[in-house]
Design brief:
The protein is an alpha/beta fold. The chain is built from eleven helices and seven strands. The protein has a seven-stranded mixed beta sheet with strand order 2-1-7-6-5-4-3. α3 runs parallel beside α7 and α8 crosses α9. The chain is globular, with a radius of gyration of 19 Å. The termini are far apart.
């Protein structure tokens, strides 16, 4: 046996993959108690960069992370994202150094689209279940990359403004395994990923990450075209008032 033969390269574990992809990990403790949130943050202090703290009361269009980032949204489609970015441009310019994050809830996008697919019925519709959230994330990330490199945001940066970044959120889901599965497919550079404490532990324990760490716009557009054939537009997707109240 040749003891000098090179060993196969072992795929990077989830936490290392996130760090390599420059994806910041957050804790999502909005549905936990303050005591549980503090405990989870202490346990994961070396892993996470920020936290979405427990809700303080009535839902608001914007709230702050534990470290002061203003989280706006959520947005479920490209049209709402673009409208929000236009609104944030003068606000970020007028507040140099203030950090903004635009929330995109993968679980909610999947839930909205899957409910419509279930009403349509049939094998073709069933095959498209649980594809919208990730596809929408790729489309949003592609748009975000163009936005932060645009002349408008470049001029704002010269005045001290910080461009918003995308925050992927994964709960409430069908357990921590679902949240960890979302996480493995959203390790996009320059973004942040928020996981519940249990989902973060599950994600860290996974052996490897098989999801993409770069945008796959071709596949995302294919999914969008198929959903459009079913009459579901990813770019204009938004929940009804009743659905928004239920998920809040």
């Amino acid at each position: 046996m040749n003891t000098l033969a090179p060993l196969p390269v072992r795929p990077a574990g989830p936490l290392r993959a996130a760090a390599t992809a420059r994806t910041a990990l957050w804790l999502d403790c909005r549905r936990t108690t303050r005591q549980s949130a503090d405990q989870a943050l202490a346990e994961a202090a070396d892993t996470v960069r920020d936290m979405l703290p427990p809700d303080a009361g009535d839902p608001a269009p914007a709230h702050r992370s534990a470290r002061g980032t203003i989280v706006v949204g959520p947005v479920h489609g490209l049209a709402a994202y673009q409208q929000l970015m236009r609104r944030l441009l003068p606000e970020a310019t007028a507040s140099p150094g203030r950090a903004f994050a635009v929330e995109y809830p993968l679980w909610a996008v999947d839930a909205l689209v899957d409910a419509r697919l279930d009403l349509i019925g049939g094998c073709e519709a069933k095959a498209m279940r649980s594809t919208a959230g990730i596809a929408g994330a790729h489309l949003l990330y592609d748009a975000w990359r163009r936005d932060v490199q645009s002349p408008q945001w470049a001029r704002a940066a010269e005045r001290g403004a910080t461009a918003p970044y995308l925050l992927w959120t994964t709960q409430p889901c069908a357990g921590p395994d679902r949240g960890a599965a979302y996480a493995g497919k959203c390790l996009f550079p320059g973004t942040a990923l928020a996981l519940s404490p249990t989902a973060l532990r599950t994600f860290a324990q996974h052996g490897v990450v098989t999801g993409p760490s770069a945008v796959d716009i071709t596949e995302a557009r294919r999914v969008a075209r198929v959903l459009d054939w079913f009459g579901i537009r990813l770019d204009t997707l938004e929940p009804s008032a009743a659905q928004a109240a239920t998920s809040a």
